[in-house]
Amino acid sequence: MILYIHGFASSGTGYKSSLFRSHYEGREPFLSPTLSVVPDLAMHTLRDLIDTLKPEHPIGLIGSSLGGFYARIISHEYGLPAVLINPALAPHTLLRHHAQQVRHYYDGSRFYVEESHLQALSHMAQQTGHDDSAILVFQKKGDEILNYRTVQNTFSPEQLVLEEGGDHGFSDISRHFSHIDGFFAEASSRS
C-alpha cells in the first residue's frame, strides 16, 4: 500500500496525489488523505491510519514538502520506506512568515498558521530520528521555497536524486515513477 502525504495548504486530491493515484491504480492500494493544517492532528491521523493498515499491508510512504517532513518522522517511528519530494526539513522556520491568513490551494478556504502550529512542528523536528536508511529523496535545485543545500547536506548522495532547474511543485515527478517503484520493491524484499 502507498500512503501519499500532501504538502502545506494542499490536499489529498492535489496534482501530485492525482499523478500517483493514476500510477498505482489497479496495481497497488493507494491512500491520500486530506490532513488537518494543525500538525498534531495531521500526525495523529497518519499514525491512526498506519496502526490500522500496517498489520494487513506493507506500507510505503510518499511525502511532498511538509508531507515529506511528516513522512520522514513516520518512517523513523514505524521503520517504513519513504520517498520524500522537495521535503521541508524545518517547516517551523519556513512557515513563520505565514502568520497571516493562508489560502488552501485546493478549495480556496482560508486558515491561519498559529504559533502553536509552529511550536508543534519545532518539537517534531527535534524528535526526528537520525536513521534515514529507508528514505529516498527527490529534490529540485530550482525549488523557489526550499534551499536544496539543506537536503543535500542532510542525506547521503546514494539517497538523493538532485536535479537542476524545476520548482517546488516538482511537476515532472512522473519521470521517476520506475525509480520509486524499484525503491519500494527493494524495501519490500528486505522486510
From TrEMBL:
Pfam families: UPF0227. Transmembrane segments: none annotated. InterPro entries: AB_hydrolase_fold, UPF0227/Esterase_YqiA. PANTHER family: ESTERASE YQIA, ESTERASE YQIA-RELATED. This is Putative esterase.
